[in-house]
Amino acid sequence: MNRFMAWTAIILGCIYFILPMTGMVEFSLSMRRGVYSLDAYRVVLADPVFQATFSYSVIMALFTIAFGVLLVVPTAYWVQLKMPEIRPVVEFITLLPLVIPAIVVVFGYIRLYNTSSWLPLTGSVTGTNILLMFGYATLALPYMYRAVDTGLRSIDVATLTEAAQSLGAGWLRIMATLILPNVLGAVLSGAFLTFAIVIGEFTMAALLDRPAFGPYMQLLGANRAYEPAALAVIAFAITWACMGLIHMVSRLSKHKRVSH
Amino acid sequence: MAFLDISHLEKSFGTNRVVKDFSLGIEKGEFVSLLGPSGCGKTTVLRMVGGFETPSAGSIQIDGVDVVGLRSNQRNIGMVFQAYALFPNLTVAQNVAFGLKVAGVDKHETAERVTEMLTLIGLSDLGARYPFQLSGGQQQRVALARALAVRPKVLLLDEPLSALDAKIRASLRREIREIQQRLGITTIFVTHDQEEALSMSDRVVVMTGGKADQIGTPFEIYSHPTTRFVAGFVGTLNTFDAVVTDPATGAITLGETPLTLNRAIAAKNGAVVTLAMRPESATLGTGQPGDVTLTGRIAEVQFLGAIIRITADVGGQNLTLDTFNRTDMPPPAIGSDMAISLPTSSMVVLVE
Predict the structure, then answer these.
(1) pLDDT for B313-325, tens place per residue?
(2) Cα B141 from Cα B23, distance rounded (Å)
(3) Is the pTM of this model over 0.90?
(4) Which positions in chain A touch B51 (Cβ < 8 Å)?
(5) What are the C-alpha distances in Å from B26 to residues B19, B51, B61, B185, B308?
(6) What count of other Cβ atoms lies within 10 Å of the Cβ of residue A82?
(7) Lowest CB count within 10 Å: A200, B44, B65, B235, which one?
């Protein structure tokens, strides 16, 4: 009986997730009447706006990842090594983006960095891009910090640091050659999550009026029938590819025992 | 001045004074162990020499240079940790080469030095392995090679054998000492294991409560402990209360038995002092002329193979003695009365 209930729950769960997706894929393939075709995908991929917005979001994602790694890895390392007592405070701060909606954050940004403020970031395209990158980094912070912190906890940071120091290494070398490679799997997990968040983010990009992939998806969804479904499938594929890469990276790190 | 000179070193964590007025001079090529129970400050002293803790007061000079103001990566010291601390993302060879790379040694010389070090530790064919592919003993040997590759002025060993099993520990102990002697490297070894300290060191520093209680050769520490703590911490000891009757000649009364140690005692007439004696100094039967002979009832016999440890009740006090096992002489029966002789020359008067 218990087994039956368990299987029922699993099947219901699968249906709940798989059915809409199957419907969506089926619909995205139905642009040409009567037969399945990839027309919707062809139209989307050939659209110069798609190419522009997708490229923009990919570049923004890469910058966000670089900024996030530079911000989070040294912070988490320092907290673990020198100030373990402030860990709860840092954890609380990194969790804030989960409870403060993106729209509140972006309104705060606009209020603080508008053209009449002391740091008028929204006054130029570059400034707005930088502001958007900060916003993305904030949204990704809970995931990035958690991933890196978990990675750091799995190694004996303090002793490895002291061992490297006794061999003459300075902070920069310790970070670059020992800490980062040892938490690379964790950093990449955080990076792929960041990538997935940035690619699908709408609120910040729309309110800062930047040509990102999120607003493009919304625009297309409001005006077309089959293309949005194709776009959603593409977005899913990107997310899944990211998840697959996370998995692959953790399997491929050759200096660690493969534990799964 | 000694090659490594530690002078009036102090360390406090908040109100807790962990190291108190610690001074020690170590000659070049000497192997010195800091021995003591947990929390005695031995690791803190080592970490201050290594530059991982800043002294509250005092100086540390290596080869005439005060290193207190220098960071650990500027001190040219090698350190081996209890937890091995090999870099998991680097191979054995890369681990050994790490310090050389930092120092900017060219590739050719680095490769040569790595080969030399791996040969020294007997792992020349394991250079391409990662740390997780090695056993604990192998990892610790790599850690030693890594620390030695940069030719440090001082080698610091922080309980390097504690995480290993007994057999590996004993063999690595010999190996470390042999390598240290071959390279002539000045070494500080921190341990809570008296056997390790006594068997490996040129000198042993017994520490308690943040202070050096006694500094001496292993023989001195074991045979002539100067404090009750050292006597009790290093090896097994019989202690008796005795009353001084003449401090100048060393005449005392042990229970009802008067005896003379033939050396001056730093105590007043009538004072109660502690007499200490190692179990192996006492013998069953009547000993040499001049020995004190007591009669004791055998309370316990522990057969340890080569050695038999006997506990006897002597006038209400327990006395432990070790004798070699002899095939022609079975151990005494429990409850039997036996003569036990104690040579006065091996009795130590403990001052505190």
Answers:
(1) 887 788 899 988 8
(2) 30
(3) no
(4) 165-166
(5) 18, 17, 10, 11, 38
(6) 11
(7) B65
